[in-house]
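can u pls check wat happens w/ magnesium ion
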Amino acid sequence: MAGDAPRKTTIDELTSGAVAAPEAAASRRPASGDEALIACDRLVRIYSTAGIEVQALQGLDLLIARGELTALVGASGSGKSTLLNILAGLDKPTAGQARVAGHDLLTLDGRERLAYRRSTVGFLWQQASRNLLAHLTAAENIMLPMRLAGVGRAERRRRAGELLGLLGIGHTADRLPAQMSGGERQRDALGVALANGPAVLLADEPTGELDSETAGEVFAAIRRANAQLGVTVLVVTHDPAVSAHVRRTVAIRDGRIATEVLRREQTDASGEVAYVAQEYAVLDRAGRMQIPRDFIESLGLAERVRLTLEPDHLAVWPDRPAGHDGERR
Ligand code: ADP
Ligand code: MG
């Protein structure tokens, strides 16, 4: 049975309300790695191929609370897929720490790693075909991971039906992938990722190959899984329509989390709900932070800056000779 992993939540527990509402969880910030469902501490991944070293992750810190839905954004090559592959248990970091739902990803042995990938995390790829077998129907594809985890036939059927309904593709249960639309296929792939009731759903540009309307349907299904199953979601996306509608967006730059945008829902006097966004720079444990590139350029900051401590904030000054304010050297 798949239900014996520590801190893992089953679909049944979730639907019976035995688990705290994800909304409540999302509003709490984990104060330490012990409280977080996902905790990365100074994570490093160096690829060495043909004598050339690429530092894909350069001491990345990240805490994600149970029940959060977080978007991960960043330029191509910034390390997004590297991070997701490590969290998925598909790749090992070179140094640092990564814990997910009580599992230390650096010390998992082969058997534990397999169980972790089968039951603790679900992965949704950009191409639905990586989650789906072409000769199985939508329902059979979702039942397959449950069968591998030892779930009985009747229970497999019941849960597959429940997931297809939740994802809005109940009508495709008996269709092969080739008989479904792109959006239906991707939602079926999402069902496969959720089949064993994972604590964490990782999605790497899941709407990257879809038109905007279909992308919206797939993202709505991801959102429903987060809200109704309580699964913690980390989704890589280039789609501003997605990142604008999540509470938290983290931006990765050169293998580190550089900035974060938090959005709060605010209801005005007339009852209209709007999102208020605030952007933050992220301070790592060593006190380092990245200054946004446009700030650097607009003040011409380079090499050295002067820091002055004010009662309630810190000021950063370009390094120019005293008495020559405003004049470039
Ligand atoms: P992203 O998903 O943000 O586009 P990746 O995590 O795929 O970025 O890649 C980060 C960096 O690591 C890039 O410079 C990429 O070329 C390099 N990289 C990724 N995978 C490998 C690999 N298997 N071997 C060597 N270099 C890699
Ligand atoms: Mg990538």
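The pocket of adenosine-5'-diphosphate (ligand 1) is lined by residues 47, 49, 54, 56, 74, 76-82 (CB under 6 Å).
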